[in-house]
Amino acid sequence: MDLTRIDVSRNARRFYRMEIVPGLFGEWSLIREWGRIGQPGQVRVDWYDTEAAAKDARFDIQMQKAKRGYE
């Protein structure tokens, strides 16, 4: 899932990317990358016991980002 926020008045062009990936031993990871569009971003990986837990976490983060103007 890719989100972007562009605010020309503040010269802010940001992206936020999330992906859910299965692990080798039945766990699931939520991989997040964020930064300025056109530049390499920072990456964070969070592990969850179930796919449902990872999807819930992704949804919560998506709602937080929507409040900050990401689409």
Task: Give structural notes.
It contains 1 helix and 4 strands; from the N terminus they run ββββα. The termini are close together. The protein has a 4-stranded antiparallel beta sheet with strand order 1-2-3-4, with helices on one face. It has one domain (2-67): q64v53_bacfr protein fold (Single Sheet). The relative contact order is 0.24. It has one helix at residues 51-67; strands at residues 2-7, 12-22, 28-36, 42-48. Residues 1-71 form the WGR domain.
List the keywords.
YehF/YfeS-like_WGR; 4-stranded antiparallel sheet; elongated; WGR domain-containing protein; alpha+beta; 71 residues; q64v53_bacfr protein fold
Strand fraction: over 45%
The CATH class is identified as: Mainly Beta
Task: Give the domain tally.
Answer: 1
Using the coordinates shown, work out and report the CATH topology. q64v53_bacfr protein fold
Main sheet summary: 4 strands, antiparallel
Q: What is the overall silhouette?
A: elongated
Physical arrangement of strands within the biggest beta sheet: 1-2-3-4
- Cα(first) to Cα(last) distance is 10 Å
Please count the helical segments.
Answer: 1
Q: Which series of helices and strands comes N to C? A: EEEEH
Second rung of CATH, namely the architecture:
Single Sheet
- Which stretches are poorly predicted, pLDDT < 50 over at least 5 residues? none
Helical content class: 10-25%
Q: What is the typical, i.e. mean, pLDDT?
A: 96
Q: Write down how many β-strands occur, each being a DSSP E stretch of 2 or more residues.
A: 4
Question: What structural category do the secondary elements indicate?
Answer: alpha+beta
Rg estimate, integer Å: 13 Å
